[in-house]
Amino acid sequence: MHTIPPWIRWGVAGLAMSLAASAPAQSSLQDEVLEAQRTQAELQQQIDNADKAVREQLRELRQVRQDTRRLQTYNEALAPVVERLAKRLKERRSGFETLAETREAMPGVMRDMVERLRRWVEEDMPFLRDERLARVASLESTLSAVDTSSAEKLKRVLAAWRAELDYGRELDAWRGVLPGDSQREVDFLRLGRVGWYYLTPDGQQGGVWKAQQGEWQSLDESALAEVRKGLRIVREQRAPAMLDLPVSQPLEDAS
Question: Rounded to whole angstroms, what are the CA distances from 77 to 67, 90, 216?
Fold first, then answer.
């Protein structure tokens, strides 16, 4: 049996004790390495997150710049429109400010228009006189009606004025009673306000109204023939043609 020398035994024991003592140190070192790796990973994740946030902020910044440029372009294009609308609004505001004054003045204006219309009819050639004066009387009643709106009153006044103005542009023919006569029916021919004529039903007598004298003046045979022709033209019984007739009043006075 071999005996291990003492120095060997002590060496082996020392090595074992040394290894036993270094084991905790190695474990601690591994822990530190792992902790360092975790810390580095966390730092890298933070860096990655920071980079992602920066990239997102840059994208948002570029989007904001694009939106800003579009808004500037839109505002530049919209500026003239806004200016026109502002001008129109100012004009309408000015109109609203005077609207109350206009409404207050309107009844007086309409009364004046009706009074002037009555004077016109009374001083004009007396064709359809009763009908025209009845229209004026109806307007006067309308202006006094409390249940009729101002807009409706103005509408009727303007319609009456248009009717009177149209008389100056129309050709007309009708059968009626000769003014100042003993209920004798005749055929009337009116050429605007330039000429007003009558012809008896047998076509043998006729006259022209003379505004300055305020009476009828007899027509000769050639003028009677022209009146007959004019009646047929107005009644669409023959083609339009020139008429050679005396006028009722000077052309500059006819309207």
Answer: 15, 21, 72
Q: Which residues of 142-153 are buried (b: 16+ CB within 10 A; e: fewer)?
A: bbeeeeeeeeeb
Q: Using DSSP, state whether 212 is helix, strand or coil.
A: coil
DSSP string, 176-199: EEPTTSSS-EEEEEEETTTEEEEE
Average confidence score pLDDT of the chain: 83
Q: Pull the structure tokens for residue 18.
A: 């040394």
Contact residues for 19 (Cβ-Cβ < 8 A; gap 6+): none
Instruction: Of 111, 114, 165, 153, give the one whose Cα is nearest residue 135.
Output: 114
Cβ atoms within 10 A of the Cβ of 83, count? 10
For residue 220 the two structure tokens come to 């000769």
Compute the distance between CA of residue 207 and CA of residue 219 in angstroms, rounded to an integer: 5
HSE, CB side, 13 Å, CA atoms: give it for residue 188.
Answer: 21
Amino acid symbol at 201: P
Neighbours of 231 (CB within 10 A): 18
> What is the per-residue pLDDT across 236-247, written as a single tens digit (0 to 9) for each?
999 999 999 999
Q: What is the pTM of this model?
A: 0.59
What are 228's strand-pairing partners? none
